[in-house]
Amino acid sequence: xxxxxxxxxxxxxxxxxxxxxxxxxxxxxxxxxxxxxxxxxxxxxxxxxxxxxxxxxxxxxxxxxxxxxxxxxxxxxxxxxxxxxxxxxxxxxxxxxxxxxxxxxxxxxxxxxxxxxxxxxxxxxxxxxxxxxxxxxxxxxxxxxxxxxxxxxxxxxxxxxxxxxxxxxxxxxxxxxxxxxxxxxxxxxxxxxxxxxxxxxxxxxxxxxxxxxxxxxxxxxxxxxxxxxxxxxxxxxxxxxxxxxxxxxxxxxxxxxxxxxxxxxxxxxxxxxxxxxxxxxxxxxxxxxxxxxxxxxxxxxxxxxxxxxxxxxxxxxxxxxxxxxxxxxxxxxxxxxxxxxxxxxxxxxxxxxxxxxxxxxxxxxxxxxxxxxxxxxxxxxxxxxxxxxxxxxxxxxxxxxxxxxxxxxxxxxxxxxxxxxxxxxxxxxxxxxxxxxxxxxxxxxxxxxxxxxxxxxxxxxxxxxxxxxxxxxxxxxxxxxxxxxxxxxxxxxxxxxxxxxxxxxxxxxxxxxxxxxxxxxxx
Amino acid sequence: xxxxxxxxxxxxxxxxxxxxxxxxxxxxxxxxxxxxxxxxxxxxxxxxxxxxxxxxxxxxxxxxxxxxxxxxxxxxxxxxxxxxxxxxxxxxxxxxxxxxxxxxxxxxxxxxxxxxxxxxxxxxxxxxxxxxxxxxxxxxxxxxxxxxxxxxxxxxxxxxxxxxxxxxxxxxxxxxxxxxxxxxxxxxxxxxxxxxxxxxxxxxxxxxxxxxxxxxxxxxxxxxxxxxxxxxxxxxxxxxxxxxxxxxxxxxxxxxxxxxxxxxxxxxxxxxxxxxxxxxxxxxxxxxxxxxxxx
Lengths: 523, 295
Fold this sequence. Notes:
Number of helices of chain A: 20
Largest sheet of chain A: 6 strands, mixed
CATH class of the largest domain in chain A: Alpha Beta
Largest sheet of chain B: 10 strands, mixed
Strand order of the largest sheet of chain B: 6-7-5-2-10-1-11-15-16-17
Shape of chain A: elongated
Radius of gyration of chain A: 37 Å
Largest interface: A-B, 35 and 32 residues
Oligomer: heterodimer
Number of strands of chain B: 17
Number of strands of chain A: 15
CATH topology of the largest domain in chain A: Rossmann fold
Helix content of chain B: 25-40%
CATH architecture of the largest domain in chain B: 3-Layer(aba) Sandwich
Number of domains of chain A: 3
């Protein structure tokens, strides 16, 4: 599912889609590539969330997180390049991690990748086994080719012979000069102190105004030793290159299988991240529906997470939304969160994810649209709030008729109540014509009755909490949260009218006389 | 005891796990100092990296010969994958996502003595991560050859800093001594006194900020995260120290200075130069070319 086609920036911001994407982010590059390509299966995710314990998920994510990205190495091997030792280490570690993950899954009767992928990983581990060094390292070991050991031995002996030959001439020059070398067979001589001529075998390699940097020339023995060393070094380089080329050729034979293994690892990474999400938030697979959405005890996870960090409880909500419905309720009663919950669940389903609810049944929407109170960062330039909303509504309605859910948060709240009400009634009719699913939150009265739409309300305050003695706002908000019933109920003709705003105003510290006058005006 | 052993003794005395060698300028003798430390650490598992590029045969900046770093078997290096010698092969210990100027960093163990070029991470956080990783891979002591403004990686711990200066870095002895004195003073910025009022800065302290703070008669401690956040030249730093109470959250530990009395274009009388550096910085000072403690 292409997220850009599903929701625009405003809707993504209102629903905090970024939170969801973070929550299902895989651990590695393989998973990120798979996320772009694959389509998850909510039922399989929920099944694995039930079957795989947290320890198993930890083990899988540890293996996935440790696996280096071998795509560049496989590409190079595939075109016949010789790989470097770091690439061999990466391949070895990838195969180790892959086989570890496969063994973990096998304990739960689950497969990872094809037989060809497994065979490629097993044979590559065997191919590179001689290179294992210590716990994690890789070294181009002599066991890959006995010629390597011989070449190394020759190079070491040649270096030792050269060092000995050079050391002899350096010591003799040091004795002649009466001073030590500064390292690497070099001497510094102050111009004023430099003997003339310089001792035989000493050569100036840098002249400064005040000093000479000299290097010991190589005598015949040293020159011969140097030639042997260079030859031995070249032979060693050739022997190492030959081993790398031979190993790379054998890696190349396994590239198709390893590509399969990498793809399977990516799919596993993406899947495990979603399983972890489903397990952490007790998600269920939504039952498919032809139209509308219906859920029980659903949670808007970004808020749940925020409240959990503050040690506060979250009140899940339930709703049956067959088409277009009106939602009313007190200020701070959770109307916007109810809309976001609908949008968040719709987003989860559209992405093939299970939903954070006890039960859910919903259609798979092709478009989710948010209209109304948007994140504060959204700027309308020269447009007023109302004009901005109208432009946005125009854009929503101009889109083709697709399976859409529209979430409307106090649209037209900034114009006259009469005109706002009229617009909302007309909007309900238009959305019905389009067979859209919509939840429209408003403070304006009579819209459901006039449009014939289902009417839900937040239950609201269970009683008016006492105003905190010191007028402390945080205390007042805590009291409000404790007294508020955030659940939704369908409003019928018999439902009592709500007047929580004035109680809320009093709780938040508005003076008693003003609140009393407001009650009187309310009649 | 030779210079390298004495330097090492000073650095490790208070439990340092890492030693950074920083210079007052190019060709201050950092690599020679590092070589002296490596020689003193022979037989110990050493981890080695650099901030930027070190150990290359020719100075990239001026195409002059540079001292090479020929590393002994067992040494662990953190360097760019692209500059690791192809032959003789090293034991590859770990690849990483940390980036250097030449691509990703890796960790390797030297198996046969050979010249190595070190090209480490360019950021303080990258340096910190690479030092920690080398310790995790078994390095008993880690050496860092690098730039002053990245030694923030060592701030707040017991790790040691050795400051190198040389005749190549300044036109006169006086100028060289003044530079190293100012650098050491800046790196030795004291820790904030939590009992006294303080104004904490989020970023760097610049000359403009010093002027503004002094103009308003600021008497609180001016606190930066670590000494590398003070972006002032020698004289400006001296002025700031006179006018303000500068402090830091995470101090650095400067343990010694080294002098290279011979530069490419000039020569300072070694003993007098070393004595002047020791007197100006209050630090034990070593002539690593002469191979002995000088003052």
